[in-house]
């Protein structure tokens, strides 16, 4: 027989509303009373029905997290940090994976059916209409890794142009003149910004790209595209990649061809994933601060969940240059 909140209330000697408050993050209840009720609930095997709570207008404590390909090292790292921070707030992440090219609306609509309190969107294409629909259903959103066109929701994004300017300055300072670019999927916000940022920053240094190729953010694609670039007529003396995984692949390609890094070829990435600092790669890159991004995203989301109004806010996180051995 299923244990109910009434059973817990009777055993603990409290009201049913006290049981509800004990399982609601941020609810007004004495810590000792909350601990007592939860201990009784554990003894009886009671678990609150979050869906029922949501349907009756209460908070479920669920935060939808819309992410892309978590096989991407940065995406999995971001998801790990975000999940930990959501749990630290006494809430639970509801993972909503979206494949490249997949429409985000059906997945997000399904998440809203679980009566989530809010959503962190780190993948897919979001517009003002979708943001307003989520808000009207009681689930404000914050967009991470891109700026929402036309407003409609708060967003947090790395300053990609500033990051690429740091790389361009280093390339110029080390005398590199034939620069190659290996980017990711053309339609992604970060890829577009990083490519345009690099072009502009190189131009400011009197440099230009001599070769461009497209990968899929994986190590394998970075290696394949670098092999093609380094054996072709446009052979560069430096390769800048749209993320660290592809840059690690580019270093591997150079080694396969017997090309010294950084002597004959410089390589730079973006994001500063943990593997970038590993000794076999020692990748020069730009840090895309994960912890700060997550902190700001959850701060903005918590503010909206609490009912704070106001114009959407966009926060650009300042990157940091990580000088290592590859450039």
From TrEMBL:
Q: Which Gene3D superfamilies match?
A: 3.40.50.2300, lambda repressor-like DNA-binding domains
A Pfam family of the record is LacI
Keywords from UniProt, A to Z, are: DNA-binding, Transcription, Transcription regulation
GO molecular-function terms, A-Z = DNA-binding transcription factor activity; transcription cis-regulatory region binding
Q: Which SUPFAM superfamilies has this protein been placed in?
A: lambda repressor-like DNA-binding domains (SSF47413), Periplasmic binding protein-like I (SSF53822)
Question: What domain of life does the UniProt record list for this protein's source?
Answer: Bacteria
Q: What are the HTH lacI-type domain coordinates in residue numbering?
A: 3-57
Q: What name goes with this protein?
A: LacI family DNA-binding transcriptional regulator
